[in-house]
């Protein structure tokens, strides 16, 4: 099993990489901490390419963990990943498991 991490925080990437040395992440340029979202026009085409690559790869994962669950960035993956785990924003200790999204989508 491999873990794929998408984050707009260099600090999160660093901390997760320490705990899980085999974590896979797309190489990208980060903005300064608290400067706003990673995928910003100031990062040019390279920022857009990394965003599209991450969105596609997330959708190909067996399980996607979404936080926050309102993230537009992970919406595509939520439609196609067979298993999605979301944090309940009203109760962060509660996880919501959604399985077989693509099967339900194909049946509609």
UniProtKB/TrEMBL annotation:
Q: Which UniProt keywords apply?
A: Glycosyltransferase, Transferase
Answer whether the UniProt record assigns the keyword Transferase to this protein.
yes
Extract the GO molecular function terms from the UniProt entry.
hexosyltransferase activity
**Which segments constitute the GT23 domain?**
1-99
What's the domain of life for this entry? Bacteria
Q: Which GO terms describe its biological process?
A: oligosaccharide biosynthetic process
Q: Which family does it belong to?
A: Belongs to the glycosyltransferase 23 family.
**What is the protein named?**
Nodulation protein NodZ
Q: List the source organism.
A: Bradyrhizobium diazoefficiens SEMIA 5080
């Amino acid at each position: 099993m491999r873990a794929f991490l998408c984050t707009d925080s260099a600090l999160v990437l660093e901390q997760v990489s320490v705990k899980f040395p085999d974590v896979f992440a797309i190489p990208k340029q980060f903005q300064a901490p608290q400067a706003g979202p990673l995928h910003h026009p100031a990062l040019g085409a390279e920022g857009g390419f990394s965003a599209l690559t991450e969105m596609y790869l997330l959708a190909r994962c067996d399980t996607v963990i979404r936080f926050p669950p309102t993230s537009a960035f992970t919406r595509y993956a939520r439609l196609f990943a067979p298993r999605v785990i979301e944090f309940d924003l009203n109760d962060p200790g509660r996880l919501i498991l959604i399985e077989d999204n693509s099967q339900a989508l194909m049946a509609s």
